[in-house]
Design goal:
By secondary structure, the protein is of the alpha+beta class. The chain has one domain. The chain is 25% helix and 8% strand. It has a two-stranded antiparallel ribbon with strand order 1-2. The longest helix is centred in the last third of the chain and has 12 residues. The protein is elongated.
Length: 75
Amino acid sequence: DGSLTDMKAVCEKGYAVFVTDHFSEYVLAKKPDVQKGEINGDGKLSAVDAKWVLQAVSGSRKLTPEQQAAADVNG
């Protein structure tokens, strides 16, 4: 169904270790690096990013979870 589950894996001696109660196929994926303040995805910090944040705060623009993470510059 395309859903993802965080298995809370930890890295021990070069292996991903997690506990599960069923067999399945697993994919190890690194969370993408977030460039704080870079909201619109063009790879540059600019006034456009600030505009998008202001629009999101005012309710006129909806940010994706990734954009929200990038907008949270002090968190």
